[in-house]
Amino acid sequence: MIQLIECPRDAMQGLPEFIDTAIKAAYINQLIEVGFHTIDFGSFVSPKAIPQMRDTAEVLEMLDLHKAKSKLLAIVANVRGAEDALRFEEIDYLGFPLSVSETFQQRNTNASIAQALETVETIQNLCQTKGKEQVVYLSMGFGNPYGDPFSPDLVAEFVQKLDELEVKTISLSDTIGVATPELITEIFQVQITSFPHITFGAHLHSRVEDINEKVLAGLKGGCRRFDGALKGFGGCPMAKDELIGNMATEVMIETFKEEGYSLDLNQMELEEAIKLSNSIFL
Q1: What DSSP line would sit under 215-233, residue for residue?
Q2: How far is residue 136's CA from residue 62's CA, in Å, rounded to a whole number?
Q3: Tens digit of each residue's pLDDT (9 = 90 or more) over 19-38
Q4: Average pLDDT, integer, range 144-171
Q5: What pLDDT shows up at residue 235?
Q6: Would you tell me how many other CB atoms lie within 10 Å of the CB of residue 245?
Q7: Nearest Cα to 237, choosing from 225, 245, 229?
Q8: CB–CB of 150/113 below 8 Å?
Q9: Do the strands 169-174 and 225-228 form a parallel or antiparallel pair, or are they unpaired?
Q10: Which of 203, 210, 219, 278 sits 20 to 30 Å CA-CA off 234?
Q11: CA separation for the pair 223, 245 (Å, rounded)
Q12: CA dist., res. 120 & res. 53, Å (int)
């Protein structure tokens, strides 16, 4: 069974012009109608760092979750953000960006890797107390542009530390779109074999022409949890100047179908969501 995570937060966060709160909520409500496993809908971070997400709490109040089967995920970058997110019963997952690159950890959360690991531990304890789950995103998980050390063994060291903290979901993130199919397969195979009790996800950024082979590589490696954004909008504004977009959800869906996977999505509502995305992301 494929877990498909739709990421409007990632699609919107780097846009320079503020999207009206009501429009954000209408779009996320439409995505909920599609029936994705999880919606990465917003973040509780500094409005100075990511001004587009300053209205996440207001957006949440406008969501129609009465019949929703989708879970909600919010990104946090520190303990204060986690405490803010945990005030809302509607949020199921707190996502934290932990980088295997020291340079990117500093750029993304203004903290060292050692400090970030302490934050992960604190958030994990808070989540366990509140009955929530933390999803740790291992950013720069397939390489980095800064010359920082990287290897599959290094990724495994980070996973080992997270396993000791009882983190149950880890999303390996190709923040700048450099992963080759061979590396994607290798890293997922090694991690899934070594830590079968952990759910590993793929948060890959990619050019459109490379999406199919990257999805197939992830599937070959044993991954069954994939993040995407309709039309491939977005990318990480903290990574480098040139954004590489998210994996286009509609392209991934076709690949899954061709491989025989059932996604249990409402096709009509998906088509409406794509139309709405085209009006928001000009």
Answers
A1: HHHHHHTT--EEEEBGGG-
A2: 27
A3: 999 999 999 999 999 999 99
A4: 96
A5: 56
A6: 20
A7: 245
A8: no
A9: unpaired
A10: 219
A11: 20
A12: 21
Q: Packing angle between helix 267-280 and helix 21-34, nearest 10 degrees?
A: 160
* Token pair 């509609």: residue: 250
CB under 8 A, 24+ apart: contacts of 12-17: 12/52, 12/53, 12/233, 12/234, 13/43, 13/50, 13/52, 13/53, 13/234, 13/237, 14/52, 14/234, 14/235, 14/236, 14/237, 14/243, 15/52, 15/281
| DSSP notation for 109-135 | HSS-HHHHHHHHHHHHHHHHHHT-EEE
């096709």: which residue's tokens?
A: 267
HSE-CB for 268 with a 13 A CA cutoff: 0
Contact 98, 135 (CB under 8 A): no
Q: Three-state SS for 58?
A: helix
Tokens 């995305």 appear where? 277
Q: Predicted confidence band at 265 (pLDDT cuts at 50, 70, 90)? A: very high
Classify 172 as helix, strand or coil.
strand
CB 90 within 8 A of CB 63: yes
At residue 267, the 3 state secondary structure works out as: helix
- Residue 165: what are its φ and ψ, rounded to 5°? -90, 0
pTM, rounded to two decimals: 0.94
Distance separating alpha carbons of residues 53 and 14, to the nearest angstrom: 10
User: Which domains occur in the chain, in start order?
Assistant: 42-48+72-261 (3.20.20.70)
Joined tokens for residue 183 = 């590396």
CB 190 within 8 A of CB 231: no
Alpha helices in the chain (DSSP H): 8-12, 21-34, 56-61, 79-85, 102-109, 113-130, 152-164, 181-194, 211-220, 249-258, 267-280
The angle, 0 to 180 degrees and rounded to 10, between the axes of the packed helices 211-220 and 181-194 is 30
pLDDT for 28: 98
